[in-house]
Write a structure and sequence with these properties.
Blueprint lengths: L11 H16 L6 H17 L4 H35 L7 H5 L3 E7 L2 E6 L2 E4 L14 E8 L2 E6 L13
Antiparallel strand pairs: 1-2, 1-4, 2-3, 4-5
Helix pairs in contact: 1-2, 2-3
Amino acid sequence: MDQVIGGWGLTANQTLLGIAALLVAIDFFIATDLPTHVAYVLLSILVALNVDVHPLYRSLAGCGAWFALVVFHYLVWRQVLRRFADRVVTPDRFKDAPQRVVGAVGELKVIEERRMVAIDGDLWPLDPAQAGEAFAAGHAVRVVKVNGGAVQVEAVRTAPESGGRERS
């Protein structure tokens, strides 16, 4: 494996290592685990080919390396990638509407006898579990949870300026 490949100028080990590094680098910019898992397979093959023991033990070493890399991936690497992507690649990451409204302050409205919360121009139904609570129309409320498309709220002391997220 230490022989230079044709006109490429790299050994087979260096080539596999380079391809694996490139695939891991691609994972920084593409939101999928596939390139990294292919890189882990290539690194496991490298381990298996370079361990100087019986072929059965080589296979076990390769499988062990793959298993260790997958455990590392799910326990450490994905969080590192997510933090990197959130800070550098996509600092304004997408949040779907239910995630976005948690913590937002809105105004309670009654429309056709249904209690709704107006947040950033959107109307969210009040959770039926809070039907007995004394929230009157016009009161400012903060969303604490979204449950099945309906919001659970708590009262706030000041009225919202524009139905948006309160700054604290």
